Amino acid sequence: MRHPIIEVTPVIPDALSRLPELAANLFFGWHRPTRALFEDLDPEVWKQSGGNPRLLLRCVSQQALDRAAADPAYVGRYQQALAAFDAYVSAPSSSEAPLVAYFCAEYGFHESFPIYSGGLGVLAGDHCKAASDERLNFVAVGLLYGQGYFTQVVDNDGVQHAEYKDHDPRDLPVEPVRKEDGTWLKVVVRIAGRDVTAQLWKACVGRVSVFLLDTNCDDNAPADRDITYRLYGGDESTRIRQEMILGIGGTRALRALGLQPAVWHLNEGHAAFLILELLREHLARGLPFDAALEAVAGQCAFTTHTPVAAGHDAFGHELLVSQFSDFIRELGVPMERFLDLGRSPSAPNLFNMTRLALNGTRSVNAVSRIHRVVTSRLCADQWPEVPPEENPVGFVTNGVHVPTFLHQTWANLFDRTLPKQWREQLSDEAFWHAIEHVPDDQYWATAQSVKSRMLASVRERLQREYARKGLSPAQWRHVTRHLDPSRPDTLTIGFARRFATYKRASLLLKDRARLARIVNNPERPVLFLFAGKAHPADQPGQQVLREIKQLMLAPEFLGRVVFLEDYDLLLARALVSGVDVWLNNPIAPLEASGTSGMKAAANGRLNLSVLDGWWAEGWTQDNGWGIPPINVQDPERRDALEAELIFDTLEEETIPLYYARNDDGYSPDWVRRSKRAMATVIPRFNMRRTVHDYVRGIYYPLARHSARLMGHDFAGARTLAEWKHKVRELWPKVGLRLLAETPLDLPRRERLRLRVAATLNGLQPADVRIEFVGRRVLPESDFEPPALSSYNAVAQDGLWIEQLGPTGEILEDGSVVFALDAQPTECGQFATEVRVYPWHELLTHPFELGLLKRL
């Protein structure tokens, strides 16, 4: 029989009356002095509550609160934290700035708020935090999951068990959103022929409001109450319903709040159904379908985060229609037209959420330079006539929220040794050279202090795990014998992330004998710490995890290779700040970005990583180690060769450098490289820089573009839709021919003169742009498309582009003559072409239509 839990709550003393307010805002997640107020009330209850300030305030003893209220030092810290909080949240945002609505299926703000699974959620949480720091006009939308993601338990055989537990909203930093009459604000989404109600919660992330929808309410049938039960749980029908609540319900929630976003940011395709809801709104105003789609797309930005197929949801048409039947009827469009919005040429019988996002947005970005290349190829058929390297996919490389992940011990050192404005200079590369002037002995002592804390927390975590599983203290001692906080002098390498197969957690197991020699070297020992979850449905990923766990218990690796279960934000912060080396060895180019290595480098830890994702941009030869990907066809041979490269780097560079210690007990060259990691990574890969890139390159331009489309009763959207229809109809018979051959030799001071006849098939000269394009082949150029989709190729090194203009001549066959008279800007050999593509001033990108012909 299950007995009810009676909760006896303490009374908050008047001197500490605003502690609940501090607990209700996720500002505590990155403001360490605020978080310390709760932890110091009762460190043991803090641990038992999972670092949850709301739960702690309900369960801490009255004596602890009264003691704190009578302690002048504690009250002084409390008042300082309140002053910092009040100053932070009251700082005005720009009311004239366009409102950005950010949608994501998961958010990783803090371990006590478990509505995240991994990197996507943590990135979304960091984005919101930085938007708050930068005082953006910004609101976020997500789902409040009853159980969230699973808790991981791994048995001695390495078998992962997924456990779920219900979360009481009282324990979470959320409050119901109320209407003026005091009733709970709810929205209704028609799903599979019935009304599904979602109630709205609000979480405060500093200055930013995050609205979370929850279907666990009395209005719904039991099956519908479970829609928002588990993150990434259930079958396809659950997944599509979750995404309908997120996209359609989330949009309706913002409308019910009276908010009118200028920009809608889809962080991954899970939220793409919001496009359909915006489309429904515009169609209800009487806009034609194509004009409505232009108006919607002109407001929407899409960020894609993975080149892995499993990261792109696609639903069978039968399932989709069964869920959307009423919605489709309300739209009043033919079924095939509706299905075309999510139809991919490679899988025409599926409704692909990424394809819907591509069709319904006008800003598309990947999350690193390499990921941009991969994504532009993956999505090339969206713009079929445009070379992938020039299509509208841009990139904004991810960043991390430094205040969240920089260890407090480092912040204390910076307060003592750097100019006092260092927190405001996170993106100033020149400023961060100052880290190189911090005395080496102080720097090393700080690094070792942080490492000692990490080792202590890992030991304690393992002790709790072994006690929970009923294992003996002797077994725990064997596993933790080298995790000695008092002697943090063993080189410690960390690998912690999702156990997806492409991340290759078990790569170094390719040569167990060599690995054993490395970790057991008596003069230069090495310790490996592994952590990570495999999705419950990912059997290959769970097999990798099993191999790691079994390795941990093998006699030759016992105490030298340690697996830490239930990887979460708390463990992540400890590992990225405390290990000496952060290992990452994905199959290139499948690592879209990765951010854990950024967090490690921000704490002075050295990355040893395959040159993929962010590290291909971040590595500077002297701030870590870069492993070049091996391009061979055989996966087994590739893995063996790349494992050998990592082993060689460890044995020949990393380990000798770490143990090349001076009389003071540290390696000066290691410290120098560690400082370079901080100085190069913090300014370039912090979330403040990332958010600035979104603001300047996407949010503000898209808001201006949307205003042009929607002004004067959507005149711009109507005009653009009609023009696109005309162009697509006439384009097949558009063509070019040279009226004179391009000169093969051109002295530097002579001019390039070209004449081209364009068959426009009824289009006007103003409807097209004709260009001469020269790509330098000798000397070789490093041409790369610009980061964002505001394409300006003229400025690119090694790319020579000149626009031809109409001369006014019309030939007998009706062709229009275009001519060029231009001065070359540089010498060299150029591969040349002349091309024509549609042009209109309301396009967001020259190749938006995907139409281009060339000579």
Layout of secondary structure:
Elements: H1 19-23, H2 32-41, H3 43-48, H4 53-59, H5 62-69, H6 72-90, E1 100-103, H7 119-133, E2 138-143, E3 151-154, E4 160-163, E5 175-176, E6 186-191, E7 194-205, E8 208-214, H8 222-225, H9 236-256, E9 263-267, H10 273-284, H11 289-297, E10 300-303, E11 314-316, H12 317-331, H13 335-340, E12 343-344, E13 347-352, H14 353-359, E14 363-366, H15 369-378, E15 393-395, H16 402-405, H17 408-417, H18 440-468, H19 473-480, E16 491-496, H20 512-519, E17 526-531, H21 539-553, E18 561-564, H22 569-578, E19 581-584, H23 596-602, E20 606-610, H24 615-618, E21 624-627, H25 635-659, H26 668-684, H27 687-730, E22 735-738, E23 752-759, E24 768-778, E25 799-810, E26 816-822, E27 829-838, E28 853-854
Parallel strand pairs: 1-2, 1-9, 2-8, 9-10, 10-14, 14-15, 16-17, 16-19, 17-18, 19-20, 20-21
Antiparallel strand pairs: 3-4, 5-7, 6-7, 7-8, 11-13, 12-13, 22-23, 23-26, 24-25, 24-27, 25-26, 27-28
Helix pairs in contact: 7-27, 9-10, 10-11, 11-27, 18-19, 18-22, 22-23
